[in-house]
Structures are given as structure tokens and as C-alpha cells.
Amino acid sequence: MESASANLQELHECRQCCSFCDRVLHPSGCIESGCSFLYLFEDEETGTRFMGCMNKVFRAEIDVDAFEQAQRTRHGFGGVKMTGLPLPQCRSSVERAYYGYGDPFECTNPGFFKKPVPAEDEFDLRDL
To answer: Which residues, in sequence order, are bridge partners of residue 92?
Structure first.
């Protein structure tokens, strides 16, 4: 029996061609949508503020000052690797790790670019 984390890894990573694609979540979308699952905490030792996702759509805890500084640039902060199932308000995209030419870099899994949906038989306490 496969573990749930292995299934999520397959859901968020495509390695079927040489491009290597990953689903990423854009934390700027969490702030813009006013997501109630976005949390903020301050490290008592350093005073650094971090933000993260209570639903673990992404597992990274992001330095808020670094995020705000990056957001002021032309490219913005960008995305962080998705690790859970996105919520309807989540802003996500697929990023390619490598660009190349020829058959090895041709996409063989175009369905990967569609937003993932939870399986019908998935158990979620929020549904109770």
C-alpha cells in the first residue's frame, strides 16, 4: 500500500519528460484572498516573523520581511512547492525546472497542468 505522502508527491511532481515540472503555490495569493488558513508567528529569539499554511498546502515557513522585500521587485516572491491539496482560493501554477528542445523535453502529461481535485472517497474531518 502506497503512503499518502507518496501519492501527494506524484500529484505535485511530474517527471515523465526531461522538463521536470512541479506544482507551486503563490503565497501572495494567500494574502490577496485573505485566506483564513495563513498564519503568522514571531520567533522569540530572533524577532523574525514567519508565515505558513495551517492546511499544509505548502510546508515552508516564509520569512515575512524577505517575502515583502521580494514582492517589491518586478518578479515578486514567486511560488513555493505545493505539498497538500489546494483550496479553491489558492493561487497555483506549474513551473518547469528545465527547458530544452526535442522529444525528451516534449510534454507527455498535459493533464498535469490542470488543478488537482481531491478523490471522492477521501476522508476529511471538515466534512463532518
So the answer is: 25
Say how many C-beta atoms besides its own lie within 10 A of residue 53's C-beta.
24
**Is the CB of residue 100 less than 8 Å from the CB of residue 25?**
no
CA-to-CA distance for 49 and 86, rounded, in angstroms? 24
Q: Please, what are the averages of pLDDT over each run of 10 residues along the chain (128 residues)?
A: 61 91 94 94 94 94 96 93 90 91 90 77 62
Half-sphere exposure of 3 (CA within 13 A, CB side): 3
Q: DSSP string spanning 12-64?
A: HEE-SSTT-EEEEE-HHHHHHHT-TTEEEEE-TTT--EEEEETT-SS---EEH
- Return the closest-CA partner of residue 51 out of 66, 32, 71: 66
pTM of the shown model? 0.79
Q: Specify burial of residue 61 (Cβ count, 10 A radius: 0-12, 13-18, 19+).
A: middle
Report d(CA 49, CA 41) in Å as an integer: 6
Cell (9 digits) for 71: 514582492
